[in-house]
């Protein structure tokens, strides 16, 4: 019975997150209440509060859906034989998935375009910054591993490249989400990332 109850609780939590994605995307975060989400999900407000204390907790859980797999991948790439190519392929994969995955698109659109980091969700700024800084540290480790294997061109600093890549991906994603009809992101993903990474790889040793 306990196992079934735990499974049911996880199912309810997933329903809340799925519903929150849609409501936040439609109304924006500041104009959405937990009561709105409860009504859309066919749940009571008590069911929402059982899983999430407030909108900040809910938004952080939505963000984790996107970021946690990325953190796991960076940890793997930090020990890969070809970390630079693996990182490039991951960037391509992320852009292709964004173009074809409605859930990922909704979450990122909410976080980048539908969320005002003020007032009652102001505390989210600190949490988002903490997540981003952790990702930057992991990304830097991947690029340090690439440098140690002689994959980076001389003079390129891993921490600087990490910032460049973060800004590149964030810019591409934000720009495309603003108007997805502007171009075919999945079709352009390979060329976009290859253009950036082309100048990073060092010359092979003789």
Automatic annotation (TrEMBL):
Residues 10-70 form the HTH tetR-type domain. The keyword NADP does not apply. InterPro entries: DNA-bd_HTH_TetR-type_CS (IPR023772), Homeodomain-like_sf (IPR009057), HTH-type_TetR-like_transc_reg (IPR050109), HTH_TetR (IPR001647), Tet_transcr_reg_TetR-rel_C_sf (IPR036271), Tscrpt_reg_MAATS_C (IPR013572). GO terms for molecular function: DNA-binding transcription factor activity; transcription cis-regulatory region binding. Residues 33-52 bind DNA. Pfam families: TetR_C_2, TetR_N. It comes from the Bacteria. Keywords: DNA-binding, Repressor, Transcription, Transcription regulation. PANTHER family: HTH-TYPE TRANSCRIPTIONAL REGULATOR ACRR, HTH-TYPE TRANSCRIPTIONAL REGULATOR RUTR. This is TetR family transcriptional regulator. It comes from Plasticicumulans lactativorans. The lineage of its organism: Bacteria, Pseudomonadati, Pseudomonadota, Gammaproteobacteria, Candidatus Competibacteraceae.
